[in-house]
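Troubleshooting log. The previous structure file for this entry was overwritten by mistake, so regenerating from the original sequence record. Sequence copied from the archived sheet and checked twice against the printout by T.R.
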Amino acid sequence: MGVTALLQVHPRNPQPRVVREAAGLLRAGGVVAYPTDSSYALGCLVDDVDAVRRIRAIRDIDARHHLTLVCRDLAHVGRYARMDNAQYRLVRLGTPGPYTFLLRASREVPRRIQHPRRSTIGVRVPGHPVVHALLTELDQPLLSTTLMLPGEGAPLDEPAAILAALRGRIEAVIDAGRCPAEPTTVVDLAQEPPLVVRRGGGDLARLGLAEADGTIAA
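Regenerated output below.
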């Protein structure tokens, strides 16, 4: 088994030294557990095939389960997802925040991480200082998924419990204390009308939307 580091970081003013250490582990092919404004997540670099395989194995999910590109800002989102004006407006309203949007992937996204039939990818911009600092240091998105283990009904949210569960299977746990422990609200914007795939921490009212029978409308 490998060594899993516990990197303690200030939740609002993350120490640059710790951020650089986490970024170095990711650049070396690592998988890290990191905090967001919704829950802890597992992340790796987009072009690391083995790290992506390890994340899917930890979660026990296949290629049909959307992974998410966690982006620093809307400019990054625009590089990796194709949006018309209406889609852009909705994504902007939920940025930053606890929302994941499913969109058609751009040519920047490798086929192996797109949904195999729909050519879509999840994108989001979290509102958490630690992940923002990490994304700024990396200058590229993280390929991520909620840290919810097989058979569990909620994400892991205690750094010590994450370390105990995943020791030797990931390279680091970035410990910024507890998160809300609530997954993001997932909105599929790649179909018409859009569909609420999962209700989570993000309020649809913030997007100027109402929900009826799973579909959403302005």
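The helical segments are 16-27, 49-59, 74-80, 85-93, 129-138, 159-166. Archived copy saved in two places this time.
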